[in-house]
Amino acid sequence: MRVVFAFLFALAGPAAGQEQATTAPSVARAVFLNTSGESIGTATLKSTPNGVLIEAKLANLPPGIHGFHIHEVGTCDPATGFESAGGHLGSGPHGFMVEEGPHAGDLANQTARDDGTMLVEVFNERVSFDGEMSLFDDDGAALVVHATADDYRSQPAGTGGDPIACGVIERD
Questions:
Q1: 105 versus 131: which is more confidently predicted?
Q2: In angstroms, rounded to a whole number, what is the distance separating the alpha carbons of residues 58 and 100?
Q3: Helix, strand, coil share (%) of the chain residues, nearest 5
Q4: Where are the alpha helices (DSSP H) in 13-165?
């Protein structure tokens, strides 16, 4: 009888005042603009206990490998060539191939297919939604796609070329 009671109690869920062990992640989104100000894709960012998962889909990009970074300001003004997004998020040396790197905004290069679409799924353990290296500090943050591949070592920001797409990261 005790086993049956314990089983039924477990099925009922947590007692009043107790929280579930796992909760749904916080979510943020970004809409990518090209240099003409047209929407060309979206990103979903999910906060986890260990960092942020970024998933994105973009279209109408030049085929090939592109640098992909988190920039330090949540402003994407095409009229400035997206200079409004500032530099890469974080301090310290840039790149996965340098001993002191990478800084918080460094992400792996992404490839646009021959049809101009880019599918992204990257994880960044150096950023968060709240706390240290928050994507939601006073001036926010943005995701940026660059014209060419990042070499993961050139200072201060790699060799990704000019930004060609930018998306302001906003909480849901």
A1: 105
A2: 31
A3: 10, 35, 55
A4: none
